[in-house]
Amino acid sequence: MKTRVVGYVRVSTQGQVKDGYSLAYQVEEIQRYCAHHNLELLDIYKDEGISGAKVDEDDLAIERDGLQEMLSDLKWRDVKYIVVLNTSRLWRADMVKVLIQRELRRNQVDVKAIEQPSYSIYAHDPNDFLVNGMMELLDQYQRLEIALKLSRGRRKKAQQGGYAGGRVAYGYKATKGQKTLSVDPVQAETVRRVFDLKEQHPSWSLAQIAAELNQEGYTTVQGKPFSKVQVKRMFMAG
User: Fold this and answer.
1) Which sequence ranges form a coiled-coil region, renumbered to this chain (predicted)?
2) CATH superfamily assigned to domain 3-113
3) Which of 12, 22, 51, 120 is catalytic?
4) Residue 88 annotated in active site
């Protein structure tokens, strides 16, 4: 029986495309590696950050939907490895590395890095001990800060009918210069359909609801198919 794996590819700057790290190149290398090592490649998750938006090279200032979806799917996908060209596709900063590795360990998944054949997240790294300690302190600090400042202020604004900033829930839109949100009619129709599907098929998983949305022709704001992560966000916002 073949070992089941998923792949992950990422391009964060236009320069990386020129330097040979294009998504297509990474995909081909992963497919070739899996075929050569008799691995069953279930899926390849992708993130491309070259749309013109400023990208933080430490991976701390951008959202990577492909990475988040992959980490979420590990809870139900029975895979042993994530295959990448090299570990810099997953992380660059030590803090990001520790956070991702936490999720991988929870799901008993390791990393296969094509350009780093001996790499394993379970190999001892002295730097990780220090960073883990720092992250635990940072987690505590952020929880206190959010509890004492951010959440209180945003909750008060929301209670007064105002827009408190941050990500706008799917189904609404924020107009520049205004302090209130308005309903986006197209997105609102998608949200209604999500709740209808859940009511009609209470046993369906998030992935099944996402698949049905895609089958019916619904798309995200970016015109892409829905994932289970995005469906979950709609339920949480509702």
Assistant:
1) none
2) Resolvase, N-terminal catalytic domain (3.40.50.1390)
3) 12
4) no
